[in-house]
Amino acid sequence: MSTRSVATLGMLTALVAALGFLLSGVPNIELMTLSTFVAGALLGPARGAAVGAGAMAIFSGFNPYGMAPPPVYAMQVAGYAGIGAAGGLLGGRADLLRPGTAWRFVTGGAVGFLLAVGYGALTNLGTAWAAGLDVWPTMVGGIAFGIWHAAWNAAVFAAAGPPLLAALRRRQERLV
User: Fold this and answer.
1) CA distance 160 to 37
2) How far apart are CA 137 and CA 94, in angstroms?
3) Domain extent listing, the chain
4) Model pTM?
5) Which DSSP category does 26 fall into?
6) Which CATH architecture fits 3-175?
7) Residue 124 above 80 pLDDT?
8) Number of H helices, E strands in the chain
9) What distance in Å separates the CA atoms of residue 55 and residue 61, rounded to the nearest whole number?
10) DSSP state letter for 167
11) Is 2 helix (H, G, I), strand (E, B) or coil?
């Protein structure tokens, strides 16, 4: 891996973590999911996963509200690795997230919604594990909290995802 690639990974990891801290005072309103997805779209699944895992490790490890218990922390990091990998697998598919078409709202929103639901499921599993709780009641209890997060991400991905990916894709050759 070139020095430029390492620097790009580091800068994107820091950017994603900083975006997490930016809105950390507002529950379930965040820009980390979209920015991790975009990093994956720019860098590919493996490097996108590295950006997502690194950014969440920093954000959760230095969270102003305290670090999550180890099982939750592990699930948070794994969840964001998955989001970065998903960006690498789906973000470059122009037919899915093409700007300027009505489908961008549907597909972008669906991708954001599903990524947030998947992440919420992982963190709820980590919570059940950490607290020694039954899995299903914990999952059901997390639905109300997670619905707002999923709705937020659906809106952000629908509105900002396709144009952001298109603009950054034009400059991709300079980043990697």
Assistant:
1) 12
2) 39
3) 3-175
4) 0.92
5) S
6) Orthogonal Bundle (1.10)
7) yes
8) 8, 0
9) 10
10) H
11) coil
